[in-house]
Each structure stands twice: as structure tokens, then as C-alpha cells.
Amino acid sequence: MAFSSIPVLDFSLARNPDTKEPFLDSLRHALLEVGFLYIKNIGISDALIKDVINQGRAFFDLPEEKKLEVQMKNMSTLSTTFTSLIAEALHMPPTAFDRFFDKDQQHKLKIVKYPDVNSLPENQQQGVGPHKDSMLTSYLLQASHHRGLQAQNLNGEWIDCPPIPGTLVVAIGQGLEALTHGVCTSTTHRVLSPAMDEGPRFSIPFFQGVSYDATFESVNVPIDILKIKDDLVGKRGGERRDDVEFTFTKGRWGHLGEATLTNRIRSHPDVGERWYPEILARVREEERKAAGKRQRQGEEKKQLPAVNEAKGKKVGTDGWISLSERLGITA
User: Fold this and answer.
1) How far apart are the first and last CA of the chain?
2) At 67, is the secondary structure helix, strand, or coil?
3) What local confidence, expressed as pLDDT, does residue 296 receive?
4) Is the torsion defined by CA of 303, 309, 315, 319 positive or negative?
5) Which of 203, 206, 275, 284 could form a disulfide with 75 if both were Cys (CB 3.0 to 4.6 A apart)?
């Protein structure tokens, strides 16, 4: 069933042994069925968050040499802790993802200003187009009151993610979906520019890094979790409407770093045109082929039954086969 709202999880529940299991249950639902969530009570003081917001909004007025001094504190620890909780929610050891991080892992922080539409040329009024994040997880502090962030559900509908004071928005990346055999969902999202005369929207995203030498070696997701995902996917016949192709497929890349660079060029074609024109040309050709494939699948869907009664197996537009079958796992 497609989600119609973004779940809000209370991070403080994970720190209490009496409430940790219900938290992990809620996290598992968000990972498998949504791929987008809010977390509150994250353990960072309101005063520090307010200070980060104020510094972020002032960032664009600072001299160039001062910009590098602005940073988000405590996010590295938070992201590491949250990744261990993801592992536990999937019934794995909390250290299951540790091998994908360097000892002194680098992360990335951006401070983003989205001018309102009357401050932009008519052909540049999209804040950020539809995209999926690259790595395992990313965390967004919405630093102004503006709406604009939206996540796409399984029906292709755009669901608002309005600012909620005291929360961070967590997005699951393609890297996590790939490493968990597709169990975790990397959800397509976008940002709309503020409407006329609403003033600029500010946001501060933190992108959890992974080792650029890490390969697409998958983690051992337990069979019970694979079956839960199978049931969810099977109920919709393997169908999923998505404006953005999942590109972190095994065998396509040697390392996570290659896939990440390509994904960033896909999200920021202006950068690609300047620095990586050959990769951008390849990305655009892939997008053209993907669009053609979606069109053909739409035409074929009219001719395929929703259920293959002879085999008792639900079939989507591309003949969906369960995760367990693809991985050769039996109960």
C-alpha cells in the first residue's frame, strides 16, 4: 500500500531498553514501506540547532574564507548510531554495516538557499528535480518555514514533507537499498522553489559518507525480513511508479564511489556539463532508454494479467520474482 504521509519516529525511544523494540518495529516499517521519515528528540540541544540554523542562513552573507568554518556538529555520531539501529531493525547485528565505512570517514554537509520563483528565470524555477540520494542515509534540517520538500510514493504521487520543528528528515539512499537486496527503499524526492514573494527557503542536509573503495558486497539480510519485503511487494504485483530509475544495481559498478559520482551528476547536470561532460552524456542516454522502457511497460501492462493463476504468482509489468527466489533462499 502506498504511503500517504511521512512517519515521525521518536529517537529517544531507541535509547531506552523498555521502548527500543517498538522503535525498531516502527523503523522497520519506515525502511521497507516508505524510505523517508522524520526523527525527533535526536539528542542535539535546541540551542545548538537554532545556532546552526542562524549560521546557515547567514552563510550566504559571509566572506568566502569564512564559509568553511560553518559546520554541523554531532551529525557524524548520530548517523553512525542510526545506521546501527537500521541493522537491528532488520534483525542483524548493530555492526552489520561497519565494514562500509572508513576509520576516519568523511561526510558531506551542504547549506542550501532556494530563492522564491520571482527571483529566478522562468526556466529555472525547480528547486531540485526528482532524485534519489546516493549513499546509505542522509539527514535534512529544514531551516525555514517553507514547504517544498516532497517524497514520491509507490503510486507516483508526491507527498509533502513540511518542516516540523525539532526534527530531522531522514532519506534512505540507493546504497542502502543495494546492500540490503532491495529490502530498504530509496525513495525519490524533490524540492519545489518557494512561491512568489515567500522569500528564500533554507535547508541544511548532511550526507553520510561511505568508503569510496567499498564494493557492492551485500549484507546477509535474514530470511524473515526478506519474506516481509516479498509480501509487501507481492501485494502490489511488483509494481512501483517512480520518476527516477534505481541505478545502484549489482554488476553495473565496481565500487560505491563510481555509482555515487554518476548519481550526483544526474542530480546536478550543470556541474556535469562543466566538469564531467562524457559521464553526463552517458547519463542522459540511460535516461532516454529508461523512459522508453517505462513507456513499453505501460503498453504491455494492458496485455498482462495482474495475477498468473496457473503458477499462483503475482506478476508485475516486468514479471516480478520474489527476493527469496532471486537469492536462492528457502525457508
Assistant:
1) 25
2) helix
3) 81
4) negative
5) 206
Beta bridge partners of 190: 150
Of 3, 28, 26, the residue nearest 229 (C-alpha): 28
d(CA 103, CA 7): 32
Question: Among 266, 292, 260, which residue's Cα sits nearest to residue 279?
Answer: 266
Alpha carbons 281 and 287: distance in angstroms, whole number: 10
Mean pLDDT by 10 residues, the chain (331 residues): 93 97 98 97 90 83 56 82 98 95 88 82 70 92 94 95 96 93 94 88 92 82 95 85 84 79 82 90 87 75 50 40 61 51
According to DSSP, the residues that pair with 8 across neighbouring strands are 38
Burial class (CB in 10 A: 0-12, 13-18, 19+), 295: exposed
- pLDDT given at position 263: 82
- Residue 143 has a pLDDT of 92
DSSP per position, 184-221: S----EEEEPPPTTS--EEEEEEE----TT---PPP--
- CB 6, CB 36: distance < 8 Å: yes
Q: Three-class SS of residue 257?
A: helix
Rounded CA separation 112/131 (Å): 16
Given this model, what pLDDT does residue 276 score?
A: 93
Report the pLDDT value the prediction gives residue 122, as an integer from 0 to 100.
Answer: 66
Q: 193 exposed, middle or buried (CB, 10 Å; 0-12, 13-18, 19+)?
A: buried
Helices (H), 59-121: 75-89
C-alpha cell at 164: 516540523
CA neighbor of 203 nearest in space, from 140, 254, 262: 140
